[in-house]
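User: two proteins, same treatment. go.

Assistant:
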Amino acid sequence: MNQIARNATMDDCGALRDCRYLLHDRDTKFTRSFQAILVSGRVKPLALPARSPNLNAYAERRVRSVKEECLLKVILFGERSLRRALSNYVDHFHTERNHQGKGNVLLFPRTTDRHREGPVRCRERLGGLLRYYHREAA
């Protein structure tokens, strides 16, 4: 595990080179020396709370939503297109998508989208995969 931590925090090619935090469970393989290597690589290890089985369920549901609503419907050509698709999906998810569990409202509506008059317009993301209908100001 120590070697994995060293590889992950390498300056030029490590998987955690641009990350500030690493969330991990309370498994015994995440030893103090493992955490010390992460800290030396400017990554703060954060252990998940004890006895919290639902945390994994929330993470899995989020990953499933991203895959089903976005990633399985596009063809990606490398990391840049993946980052673009995920960025567009996150913007759509937070500002343009109605959430049934929250009373079917937008979580963070834009101030320009609160008008009730004017023609209905469609805003598309990812070539029409994600759509949001709104009214323009009259």
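Protein 2:
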Amino acid sequence: MQQQQKKLSDYDTSKQFEAKVISNERITPEEAEAEVRHIVLEVNDNAFEYHPGQNIGVLVPTDGEFGNKEHFRLYSIASSEGGEGDRKQFAIAVRRCFYIDDFSGERMKGVASNYLCDRSPGDTIRITGPYGGAFELPKDENINLLMIGMGTGIAPFRAFVKQIYAEKGGWKGKVRLFFGAKRGLELIYMNDVKNDFALYYDKDTFQAFEALSPRPALDEPVALDEAIEQHGKEVWEMVQDPLTNVYVAGQEGVMERLDKAMGKLAGSEEVWQRKKQDLKDKGRWFELIY
């Protein structure tokens, strides 16, 4: 996942590691339109260290077309620290992507996503990083965490929630997650195949709210703004609270829907934009938009 205002060409890829595929599991049901896979990788190198909220780069070998021997893409780490000794394990969430070529009109495979989705256990890939990250879990457990993500953008939030409740044993501040997808079957980490977030629904400080598209067949946007507005009183109180950090992740559309909802809660778009800038200035706003 690319950090905002930083180009992929700006990343240093000279420090590389070999990662072995431990498992590659589809985490959306077979009948779902979107194929999203949870891929666990292992690096056996004591020089490789990572933390939740960071990204890793994947280097995909190519045929040299356009003068590039490798295709580079970023993915958010979807797990907390794992592994034993020099063997470091981590997970990424990858959606198999396709796009329409502007010139030919032909449906083309996304290079990195299809490469990763087609890897089998035992295969090895080249990675770089980790980088960042824009997302870091605060040390103060009294900090409220307002997390807003779409699609595979919620990968770092899975890492946060797992670290908070499965490893730290809890969190004193409020932990609120707003996440969405076009259809219910496509809600990653919250469907019949893999429901990691449901493991923490009994925690006193954690609540998660789902958002879907009202008309997915017509490609209408996910109603993230409506989900936020439904819980507007608490959301606005959290934003106003100096003990709240806000984390936003996903494609560009997530920011548009968020700004729309928060503008209503603030009373106007202008008031919200001033508040958002204030959050940024005070180091309480974090985003990964790609």
